From TrEMBL:
Keywords: Membrane, Transmembrane, Transmembrane helix
Subcellular location: Membrane
UniProt-recorded name of the protein: F0F1 ATP synthase subunit C
SUPFAM superfamilies in UniProt: F1F0 ATP synthase subunit C
Naturally occurring in which organism (per UniProt): Halomarina oriensis
Length: 90
């Protein structure tokens, strides 16, 4: 799936830049919104596996709840940092 995304971006990026040689392809606010969206997608994708593993670990041993919670929340910090980027650019 990652390879398909990279192929899409590399084939689509030159088309955006052909019309405007001196201006950016997208405005800064749109770039910040794209960063937040991609960060949220990446966090959700990573939490899919982490959440399943954390639930399985807690089902076997209740003392692993704290570690599972921390590992589940950790990818969300990427979204928080992306939101900071949105407010700095806006």
């Amino acid at each position: 799936m990652l390879e398909q995304f990279v192929m899409f971006v590399t084939s689509f990026a030159p088309l955006l830049q052909e019309g405007a040689a001196s201006s950016p392809a997208i405005p800064p606010q749109a770039a910040a919104a794209l960063a937040v969206g991609l960060a949220a997608f990446g966090a959700g994708y990573s939490q899919r596996g982490i959440g399943a593993a954390a639930v399985g670990a807690v089902a076997e041993d209740d003392s692993l709840f704290g570690r599972g919670l921390i590992l589940t929340v950790l990818p969300e910090t990427l979204v928080i940092l992306a939101l900071v980027t949105l407010f700095v650019a806006g």
